[in-house]
Amino acid sequence: MNRRFISIAAIAFATSVIAFAAQAAEVKNIVIVHGALADGSGWRKATEILVDRGFNVTIVQEPITSLADDVAATNRVLDLQDGPSLLVGHSYGGMVITEAGNNPHVAGLVYVAAFQPDKGESLFDLASSKPAGGMNIRETKDGQYLYLDPAAFAGDFAGDLPKKDADFLARSQVFAAKQAFAAKISEPAWKTRKSWTVVATHDRSINPDLERDMARRAGSDVTEIAASHAVFASQPEKVADVIEKAAKALSH
What we know:
6-stranded parallel β-sheet; single chain; 3-stranded antiparallel β-sheet; 45% helix
């Protein structure tokens, strides 16, 4: 009788442990790293969609003063999450998540019209390997930071957004330190984490063929969306669909 009771109790305990483990592995945290020449506000619509679908979303407002600073800012946010996180990066944010993705809290990576570097590569290396349509990038007077000419912002960055939205992005852009773009990756997280990639087929900031090549090299699951570099803002539902797909795949 006692043995039978112990056996039943053991089975019940094992079942509860398995159920708890499955629940603990469910990916409900989405951490988004915005790109250079923009800030996190452009992710509002995509964030609201994901929150409505039951996800906990946090946007890292990294300073873009150096790659190391931006990785540190991302790790601070990741360390605040309860449970595993899906790390999402746009444009230069792809450089950041490739390093920060090694954080043990990270379950997977989503690259949205982003750089997806390998070990020893910098943003400058990748951008020069397959130039895009051309961006009117300018230097600040001190020669340390880069920005996109506001007059050219819509055409170069956000050609499929309403003018007022593109104008706001131009006005709120975050200047990027040159050293952030020159920094090289040490250990790419996509080599140990499953990854997904959104290719923006009308991208004039990153060559879409470069996005495809980087995703192929990393073995990423690829979704192509007919959109500008600002695909996260112009096609928020489609981008949210990819993020949700990734989170669900990781949860199972």
